[in-house]
Amino acid sequence: MTENFSAPQLAHRWMEHNVRPGDLCVDATMGRGRDTARLCRLVGEEGRVLAMDIQPEALESTRKLLEEENTAGRARLILDGHQNIASYAEPGSVSCIAYNFGWLPGGDHDIFTRAETSVPALEASLALLKPGGIITLCVYYGRNNGYREKDAILDWLSGIDPDRYTAIVASFCNRRGEPPIPAIVYRV
Ligand SMILES: C[S@@+](CC[C@H](N)C(=O)[O-])C[C@H]1O[C@@H](n2cnc3c(N)ncnc32)[C@H](O)[C@@H]1O
Questions:
Q1: Contact criterion met (CB below 8 Å) for 3 and 74
Q2: Most buried of 46, 114, 132, 133 (most Cβ within 10 A)?
Q3: Owning domain of residue 45
Q4: Domain CATH for 15
């Protein structure tokens, strides 16, 4: 592990471990498309990735990245909030749903994910997972975001049904400041 090992890199390792060619995945916070691009590579030509964001700028950046990587045909880019995730996938159909909370990198720092929509989105995501499916989370907090969303997400994670899901929260315990929190939910 290198000095710069990040929460998204850890999430990508979880994705690599769980996503198979032909799978359906969702990037619930598309941003600049790095998670979408990773998922598109993992699902291969037969797979499909749904990517959601509320900012047109995110869709433009992601489309460009996927075109550069020649994987644009594997993705559907959706301008909608992830609280509506259940409108886009069937229950029990998704192998990985990625959440990277916070604001658009290089974008407006006052537009960021919020507890009011993040927690309902996570709750709706559980039903979409197929057996063995995962939700990956990178929880950024502090500065403009504050702590309310982080606290609500951690609270939600600790309350989900332990007979049906395993929730694991990791910690960069020797990092200074407020390092993002990587977490994963497995459907049994
Ligand atoms: C930290 S960024 C995501 C980074 C991204 N995964 C990447 O690879 O660049 C968080 C994104 O969530 C988006 N967002 C905020 N509220 C949202 C919502 N309700 N539904 C979907 N996306 C939302 C923001 O517009 C922002 O682009």
A1: no
A2: 133
A3: 7-187
A4: 3.40.50.150
- Helix (H/G/I), strand (E/B), else coil: 8: helix
Read off the pLDDT of each residue in 96-122 and give the average, rounded to a whole number. Answer: 95
Considering its fold, how many domains does the chain have in total?
1
- Ligand 1 pocket (Cβ < 6 Å) reads 29, 31-35, 52-55, 58, 81-83, 100, 102-105, 111-113, 117
In a domain, 36, yes or no: yes
Question: Ligand 1 center to residue 106 CA distance, Å?
Answer: 12
Whether 1 maps to a domain, the answer reads no
Count of other CB atoms within 10 angstroms of residue 48: 18
Closest ligand 1 atom to Cα of 55: 25
Residue 2 is assigned to a structural domain of this protein: no
Total residue count of the chain as it appears in this document = 188
**pLDDT digit string (tens) for 134-175?**
999 999 998 888 899 999 999 999 999 999 999 999 999 999
Tell me what the mean pLDDT of segment 103-130 comes to: 95
Bridge partner list, 79: 53
